[in-house]
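Hello,

Our lab assistant flagged a job as stuck in the queue for most of the afternoon. It eventually completed. Since we weren't sure the result was trustworthy after the delay, we are filing this so someone can double-check. Below is the sequence as submitted and the structure that was eventually returned. Let us know if re-running is recommended.
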Amino acid sequence: MKRYRRPKVIEGQIKMQKGKIDGDVDMCIFYGDNVPRCDRALVMNALCSKRQRIDLETMRPKFDPSLIEELEARGYDLDTLQFSIKRKADSKRSGGGDDA
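-- returned structure --
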């Protein structure tokens, strides 16, 4: 049985990898201080949520597999998947969108 350990993260860093949540193995997100919730949600949504598009034949919404599901279907080992990003040192913004 594989042991999942919590990775070390620094301030302003987001990491994503396989881990255990309440005994179940799933993709987990780890973050350092000063990482807003909206940034963590952005990473999880981009990698783990189904992608919506318009089916041009029916002009109705259609959902494609998430990036994680697509990689697994193509034969990739998700236990080896790791994502990490750090905030720029001079970054003062704490979220997306326009500041008007």
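-- support follow-up --
The delay was a queue issue, not a problem with the job. The result is valid. The helical segments are 37-48, 67-73. The chain has a mean pLDDT of 87.
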